[in-house]
Task: inverse folding
């Protein structure tokens, strides 16, 4: 909970402190850099990437293919998270206490909400697991939509038509288009 709260607080502080940048042509680059610095380190990109493509494709992939996919998938997550932050307007984030003790657990669910200036509440749930590098997010849901399930569904057709190499190629092209 503390990690999620600290990350949310740091993001909100940075966004509040850089309002002028957020309303300039440099906004996209600034937000992507912020997400890369603040959010990516708390994500278990390896587990999330494997979950998105499914065990069969993941197990068949070479280490090089896995690394290529993780890199492209990370870029996609950064752009997705950045797009959500682009509409930041002095929003507040509330992170709720855990419902049960997490001392001996290896996985926890952290519930939070973004409270918009207009009063809208956007629920976000983070699923975390304990890794050798501490607690890491392996999935998050925005308004009850899981990012891993959403991407798994989006990628299913591409995977079935050419496996992970096909998905990497298409994802790389997509990431280049949105970065331009």
Result:
């Amino acid at each position: 909970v503390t990690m999620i709260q600290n990350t949310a607080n740091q993001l909100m502080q940075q966004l509040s402190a850089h309002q002028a940048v957020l309303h300039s042509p440099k906004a996209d680059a600034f937000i992507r850099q912020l997400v890369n610095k603040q959010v990516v380190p708390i994500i278990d990109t390896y587990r999330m990437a494997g979950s998105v493509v499914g065990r069969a494709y993941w197990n068949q992939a070479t280490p090089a293919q896995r690394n290529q996919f993780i890199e492209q998938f990370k870029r996609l997550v950064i752009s997705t998270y950045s797009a959500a932050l682009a509409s930041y307007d002095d929003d507040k984030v509330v992170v709720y206490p855990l419902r049960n003790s997490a001392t001996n657990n290896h996985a926890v669910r952290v519930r939070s909400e973004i409270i918009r200036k207009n009063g809208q509440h956007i629920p976000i749930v983070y699923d975390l697991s304990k890794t050798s590098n501490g607690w890491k997010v392996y999935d998050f849901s925005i308004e009850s939509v899981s990012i891993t399930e959403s991407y798994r569904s989006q990628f299913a057709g591409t995977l079935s038509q050419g496996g992970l190499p096909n998905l990497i190629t298409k994802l790389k092209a997509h990431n280049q288009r949105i970065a331009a």
Summary: Strands lie at 92-95, 107-115, 121-131, 134-142, 145-146. The chain has eight helices and five strands. The longest strand covers residues 121-131. The first helix runs from residue 2 to 17.
